[in-house]
Specification:
The structure holds two protein chains of two kinds. Chain A is an alpha+beta fold. Chain A has eight helices and 20 strands. In chain A, the strands form four sheets. In chain A, strands 11-12-13-10-4-14 form a six-stranded mixed sheet, with helices on both faces. A six-stranded antiparallel β-barrel of chain A has the order 15-18-17-16-19-20. A five-stranded antiparallel sheet of chain A has the order 6-7-8-5-9, with helices on one face. In chain A, β11 and β12 (202-207) form a beta hairpin. Chain B has helices at residues 31-37, 84-87, 91-94, 116-128; strands at residues 8-9, 14-18, 25-29, 40-43, 51-52, 57-63, 67-71, 76-81, 102-105. Chain B is α+β, with helices and mostly antiparallel strands. Classes of the chains: A alpha+beta, B alpha+beta. The interface between A and B is medium-sized, with 31 and 26 residues.
């Protein structure tokens, strides 16, 4: 079993020792160690890829009960001032003009040529105050880009190192949260949030958002209170079957829900229309990358789902064929626990992207049969 | 971590069990290997009649998060394959020393094989590395 092939940073089980001294610990590192989490380097942090229950059990807990994730590696920046809104509308593809206070909106951030620099969430805290949550692996690139494009009367700050984030996800997350705070404090709508919510007596920003396809909450807290909050949530969730979950389940859950991941479904060579993010691209306003996206016209590629119908597991960055024609590549893929089968997402030539088309994927020199299926692969019952 | 006394082990985390007269050998992966890989969801099963050389790739297997090769502890011809693993690869997690993968005959040279005690020491080194 020597030549273990790591497909991405988060499965680099055998890389420990190589990079362990270069990675930062989140405020919850000791909690993960106490729970016997299998720690791996990921996006500059030491994080659990799984706990002893394993990826499949953790995944199923989120679908059927609840799961708790340390997502403190995510980056947070703030825009404050009279021109905060104008800055975000110029910098990002989505339009925040009518974003109400207490609401959250998703957006890509593009280069001049339309390539995606990152995808992020914007929280409107007040008329002139915004919190922006970015991917850990892109934080420093994003901050440099954002600083270089700041204009007018606005104060920009990177507060990532002061903020921890815990995601409570799954159908039982409401029951669990209600044990630790008044029901009135819990944001009622998807993509809404509340600040200064006491959760187990700790002041938090509670957001009804997530990366799993289930109802759930993302809870932002000052670093120093994070371990206490984590332990309170774990204890409150125990009777409901809550499990601590690692990066492995986070990845399988978001793939089942067809949520794109930076570095997989998108990067600087992909524009947001190609990867299916048109709902977050407002071409009727000016923003960085708009002219290039308009000039390209209708997207020539499309993001689709693949269900493996042959034998094997398809992973990311594997070529996809219609007959002998290479029509694109997979962006993510593995065995999905709830669907109990091998699936992938792929970026394909739009002319070959219709649902039901049989394709093959080249997996280590072998062709594995698959079929194009609609996204999302999984969506929860309403 | 379990390391049965009656098996021999490779540094690439396979086990091998020779039959009484030494004419045949069953091969599997160790508890250390399955634990490192996590939930195993697929194994490519080789064909009866295929030949393999010691230390060469016998097959590969996949967990949710990764794919890994399995190397043959001994040269030989595959005379049996554990077909149960095709539909239940999770047996490699739940009982790795019962879940043999192949049986070899016409045996030749071996890879470097460790006793249970030596393999245990080796795994400890790996974990501390």
């Amino acid at each position: 079993m020597a030549e273990h092939k790591a497909h991405c940073q988060q499965c680099a089980f055998f890389a420990k020792g190589v990079s362990i001294l270069m990675e930062a610990k989140t405020p919850l590192y000791d909690c993960h160690a106490a729970l016997k989490g299998k720690i791996v380097p990921f996006a500059g942090y030491l994080l659990p890829v799984q706990y002893p229950a394993g990826v499949i059990a953790e995944h199923m807990a989120v679908r059927q009960a609840a799961g708790l994730f340390d997502v403190s590696h995510m980056g947070e920046v703030t825009y404050t001032g009279k021109d905060a809104l104008a800055n975000l509308n110029h910098l990002l593809t989505n339009d925040f003009t009518n974003l109400a206070e207490g609401r959250v909106r998703y957006s890509p951030m593009c280069r001049e040529d339309g390539g995606i620099l990152d995808d992020l969430l914007v929280y409107r805290r007040g008329p002139e105050s915004f919190l922006v949550v970015v991917n850990a692996g892109n934080r420093h690139k994003d901050v440099a880009w954002m600083q270089a494009h700041v204009f007018g009367d606005v104060e920009f700050a990177d507060i990532s190192d002061q903020v921890a984030q815990i995601a409570l996800q799954g159908p039982k997350s409401d029951d669990i949260l209600r044990k630790l705070t008044d029901a009135d404090n819990i944001p009622q709508k998807y993509y809404s949030f509340r600040e200064n919510v006491p959760v187990a007596g700790i002041s938090c920003l509670v957001s009804q958002t997530g990366y799993t396809g289930e109802k759930g909450y993302e809870i932002y807290v000052e670093n120093q209170y994070a371990p206490q909050l984590w332990n309170e949530l774990l204890a409150a969730g125990k009777e409901y079957g809550l499990l601590p979950c690692g990066l492995g389940a986070r990845d399988t859950l978001r793939l089942e829900a067809a949520m794109p991941l930076y570095g997989h479904e998108m990067d600087e060579t992909v524009d947001p229309l190609e990867t299916g993010l048109d709902f977050a691209v407002k071409l009727d306003k000016d923003f960085i990358g708009r002219d290039a996206i308009l000039a390209k016209g209708a997207p020539r590629r499309k993001r689709v789902g693949l269900k493996v119908t042959g034998r094997g597991i398809v992973r990311e960055h594997q070529p996809v064929f219609a007959g002998d024609t290479n029509i694109g590549y997979t962006t993510s893929g593995t065995h999905l626990p709830y669907l109990n089968g091998a699936y992938a997402m792929a970026l394909l030539d739009a002319a070959y992207s219709e649902t039901g088309r049989p394709v093959t994927v080249e997996v280590r020199g072998r062709r594995v049969e698959a079929e194009i299926v609609p996204l999302p692969l999984y969506s929860r019952g309403k | 971590m379990q390391i049965p006394q009656d098996l021999q082990y490779t540094k690439t985390h396979e086990w091998v069990k020779f039959n009484e007269d030494g004419s045949k050998a069953k091969v599997g992966i160790t508890d250390f290997a399955q634990n490192q890989m996590g939930d195993i969801v697929f194994i490519t099963l080789p064909e009866v009649g295929d030949s393999v050389a010691a230390e060469d790739t016998l097959t590969d297997f996949e967990s949710v998060k990764a794919v890994s090769d399995i190397y043959s502890p001994v040269s030989g011809d595959i005379c049996a394959v554990n077909e149960d693993l095709a539909d239940a690869p999770e047996l490699l997690n739940s009982d790795p020393y019962a879940a043999w993968i192949v049986e070899l005959e016409n045996l030749g040279e071996t890879a470097e094989l460790l006793s249970a005690a030596a393999y245990q020491a080796y795994c400890q080194e790996q974990e501390e590395a």
